[in-house]
Design a protein that fits this description.
By secondary structure, the chain is of the alpha/beta class. It contains 14 helices and twelve strands. Helix content is 37%, strand content 14%. The strands form three sheets. It has a seven-stranded mixed sheet, with helices on both faces.
Length: 388
């Protein structure tokens, strides 16, 4: 037999693909968290970061802590917990430290929800809420914002069922910047069963200022005059959990540290689902140094608020509908034009963040960065895309 005939008779062995590890099938439908874009050479106004770097004293604390990186961090963050508790006038058992406030959001859902339980939140709001809910096998219950891009508290209260375990109130709301005042929150809490946790996610609270909420003012921040005393609310309502972060006003987005204040029974539950050592030594040292320099850091928020008002006035003057913001960003409800608008802004080397067919969010940056965005936003092409 010829060699060619022999080769023709050779049958290639079937290739069997190795079995893959089994994971939860529902994860295929879980939307990933999408961070703000970064484009080299462009102004980044997409991630709500503070534009000023850490204070020199904070940078030194981070560098000194890095010298001990061969040692595990204090998993209980005892010193930071104690400082935060003293600052809030509560016992240390009422404070939990976490890997950013988003880590605490996930801990909260894990600690309160069984499969099939429900978590209520406004939509649009912080994009992590539906993700952490579904990771815990709970069911997300999004409630549309009202016509002013603010929380519809009556509709949210009506959405609470016997399966509801958590309600998230992002205040000021991300991405719209709108705000719920203390009176409205108190009235809302009166409608919520006491076993349902109401999480006041106050990641941007340091940027809130008293105001009358009118849309014809440069800084129409608040629907009622009072910035909520959330600590007083938590003292009156054991089901209230306050979530705060060092990422925004304190400028520590890159080191990941946040905290929760609430009833000791709830804080104890959060600690049981805490990932050990997830708040690093560097994060703890940086947060402590920020508390030492708190007055100076919070003074920076005044400059952001002033720029926020300047930008809002310029945009409104150009014909935009600008949602009243109490945060370090502005919201333009551009609807189906949002993606095209943000794309053209990126072409102009200013990165902003689109949210589906709802709107775009613009972080308040330095005056020069804000001017770059305003130059685009008030140009003929941007105004055309925005429908003006």
């Amino acid at each position: 037999m010829a060699a060619a005939d022999i080769l023709e008779d050779v049958t290639e062995p079937a290739v069997t693909e190795p079995a893959l590890p089994r994971t939860r099938p529902d994860l295929d439908a879980l939307p990933p968290y999408v961070p703000g874009r970064t484009v080299p050479g462009a102004v980044k106004l997409a991630s709500n970061e503070t534009t000023a770097g850490p204070l020199p004293s904070v940078a030194r604390a981070i560098a000194e802590a890095a010298a001990t990186a061969n040692r595990y961090p204090d998993s209980g963050a005892a010193e930071l917990t104690s400082r935060l508790a003293a600052r809030a006038g509560v016992p240390p058992g009422s404070v939990a430290v976490g890997c950013g406030s988003v880590g605490l959001c996930q801990q909260l859902v894990q600690a309160t929800c069984a499969p099939g339980d429900e978590v209520v939140f406004a939509w649009r709001s912080f994009e992590a809420y539906p993700i952490v809910t579904q990771v815990a096998l709970a069911s997300p219950v999004p409630v549309p914002l009202d016509g002013d891009d603010a929380h519809d508290l009556d509709a949210m209260a009506a959405a609470v069922t016997d399966r509801t375990r958590v309600v998230f109130l992002c205040n000021p709301n991300n991405p719209t910047g709108t705000f719920v005042g203390e009176k409205a929150i108190e009235e809302f809490l009166a409608k919520i069963p006491p076993h349902v946790v109401v999480a006041l996610d106050e990641a941007y609270i340091e940027y809130a200022r008293p105001g009358d909420g009118r849309t014809d003012t440069p800084d129409p921040a608040l629907p009622d005059a009072a910035v909520p005393d959330s600590l007083a609310l938590a003292r009156r309502h054991p089901n209230v959990l306050i979530l705060r972060t060092f990422s925004k006003a304190y400028g520590l987005a890159g080191v990941r540290v946040g905290y929760a204040i609430g009833h000791p029974s709830l804080i104890g539950a959060l600690r049981k689902v805490f990932v050990p050592f997830s708040v690093s030594t560097l994060a703890q040292a940086a947060a402590l140094a920020c508390l030492d320099a708190e007055e100076e850091l919070l003074e920076r928020t005044g400059h952001v608020v002033a720029e926020r008002g300047r930008m809002a006035a310029a945009l409104a003057g150009a014909g935009y509908l600008v949602a009243p913001s109490a945060a370090n960003f502005l919201w333009l409800p551009l609807g189906a034009r949002s993606a095209e608008y943000s794309g053209r802004s990126a072409d102009a080397k200013v990165i902003i963040r689109p949210y589906g067919d709802d709107g775009v969010r613009i972080t308040v940056g330095t005056p020069e960065e804000n001017d770059a965005f305003l130059a685009f936003a008030t140009g003929a092409e941007a105004l055309r895309i925005a429908g003006m």
